[in-house]
């Protein structure tokens, strides 16, 4: 009789545990799926919800876990820590201010021209090199070298930069970024790959290789304890802005002339208020509209659990909670659909899908300029929002100038890529075409 009673008790307990577990598990997975925001007002409310800066950082931290995993970043983009945020933002502002003490945009253009010359010289003069080279790789390397000397390490000499370090770094960053998008994760993924997870071994190996080459490029341990913290925010976005801008202007004399005039007087005033139309700033703005560096900006929020749920959860054995990940807080994800807004015909007109820089002339002096979200919005807006467009324009101009003077031509297709999809794009010796 005693054994029967004990058996019934065990069965009842197991049934109760199973019932509670399944109830909690399915209730946990019944939260709404990711919410998309597709209007300017909704995006503004998501990115500037009038929360404390700590809560804003936490929402970005939860949304960017894949980047933490892929690159082992330690900057503000993957940290909820307020001190980390202030230190990183302060450091980036210092770098931008330091550029002005080194001659500002004239010196930056000089560096960009050096970078272009070093990469195009062998195409124009070398007989043993291939008759063409990858357009995307050329833009990546030129932009990388320009960022290294023009912003991060102005005392560096261009000749001391090993192009192979740059090429490998650019390739691996692009590859790891793509892998991070494909990798599925839980509500709050671990910050680093598990040592016993063999599926992460290629990521670990490639990240180690990336860090090795970046350390060669930024050897100062005090200034750059983790070089990828600064390369990702400065280079990864900028090279794509340069590439997409070039793709739209390389075969349009009217647009090329705008960049040529900027190079003759590389000042913010010429960039924004030149008499020639379309102004260079219009071309860059239109590129940012059609090809925003981030098509989506995500924010994630921990969902506060009901006290009854917490009580029921506490009744379960720890191993059961661990198996079903019941102790971790469920996450609500929301996404600002930047590209949807940037391509909206209701906002930009019937030609919203077309590249038309002159549309920006309609907004000159107007208070009704549609909002661009290319650099985010609100307190966490990119610190380089006022610096990057001018920097990109000068690199674009330097490449156009170098290609022409080197007897080369850019050849493209109707497909304009982002991080990839630049198949068919190349820079060729004009005499070999």
Automatic annotation (TrEMBL):
A Pfam family that the UniProt record links to this protein: p450
Top-level taxon: Eukaryota
Protein localization: Membrane
A Gene Ontology term for the protein's cellular component: membrane
Any one GO molecular function term: oxidoreductase activity, acting on paired donors, with incorporation or reduction of molecular oxygen
Keywords, alphabetical: Heme, Iron, Membrane, Metal-binding, Oxidoreductase, Transmembrane, Transmembrane helix
PANTHER family: CYTOCHROME P450 FAMILY MEMBER, CYTOCHROME P450-RELATED
Name of the protein: Cytochrome P450
Protein source organism: Lentinula raphanica
Taxon lineage: Eukaryota, Fungi, Dikarya, Basidiomycota, Agaricomycotina
């Amino acid at each position: 009789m005693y054994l029967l009673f004990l058996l019934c008790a065990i069965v009842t307990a197991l049934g109760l545990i199973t019932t509670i577990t399944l109830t909690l598990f399915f209730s946990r997975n019944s939260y709404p799926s990711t919410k998309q925001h597709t209007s300017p007002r909704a995006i503004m409310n998501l990115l500037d919800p009038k929360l404390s800066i700590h809560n804003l950082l936490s929402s970005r931290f939860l949304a960017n876990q894949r980047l933490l995993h892929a690159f082992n970043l330690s900057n503000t983009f993957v940290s909820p820590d307020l001190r980390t945020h202030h230190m990183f933002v302060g450091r980036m502002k210092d770098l931008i201010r330091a550029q002005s003490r080194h001659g500002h945009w004239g010196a930056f253009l000089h560096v960009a021209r050096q970078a272009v010359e070093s990469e195009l010289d062998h195409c124009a003069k070398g007989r043993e090199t291939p008759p063409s080279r990858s357009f995307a790789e050329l833009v990546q390397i030129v932009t990388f070298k320009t960022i290294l000397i023009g912003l991060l390490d102005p005392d560096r000499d261009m000749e001391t930069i090993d192009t192979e370090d740059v090429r490998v770094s650019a390739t691996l960053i692009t590859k790891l970024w793509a892998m991070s998008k494909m990798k599925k994760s839980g509500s709050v993924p671990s910050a680093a790959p598990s040592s016993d997870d063999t599926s992460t071994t290629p990521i670990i190996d490639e990240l180690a290789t990336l860090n090795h080459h970046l350390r060669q490029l930024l050897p100062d341990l005090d200034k750059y304890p983790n070089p990828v913290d600064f390369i990702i925010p400065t280079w990864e976005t900028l090279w794509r802005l340069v590439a997409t801008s070039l793709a739209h202007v390389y075969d349009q004399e009217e647009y090329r002339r705008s960049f040529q005039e900027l190079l003759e007087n590389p000042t913010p005033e010429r960039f924004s208020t030149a008499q020639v139309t379309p102004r260079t700033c219009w071309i860059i703005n239109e590129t940012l509209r059609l090809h925003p560096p981030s098509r989506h900006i995500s924010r994630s929020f921990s969902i506060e659990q009901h006290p009854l749920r917490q009580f029921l959860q506490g009744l379960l054995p720890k191993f059961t909670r661990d198996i079903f990940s019941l102790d971790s807080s469920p996450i609500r994800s929301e996404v600002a659909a930047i590209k949807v807004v940037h391509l909206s015909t209701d906002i930009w007109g019937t030609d919203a899908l077309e590249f038309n820089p002159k549309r920006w002339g309609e907004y000159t002096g107007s208070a009704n300029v549609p909002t661009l979200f290319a650099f985010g919005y609100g307190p966490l807006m990119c610190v380089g929002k006022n610096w990057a467009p001018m920097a990109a324009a000068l690199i674009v101009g330097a490449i156009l100038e170098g290609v022409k003077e080197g007897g080369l031509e850019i050849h493209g297709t109707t497909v304009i890529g982002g991080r990839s999809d630049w198949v068919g794009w190349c820079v060729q010796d004009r005499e070999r075409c």
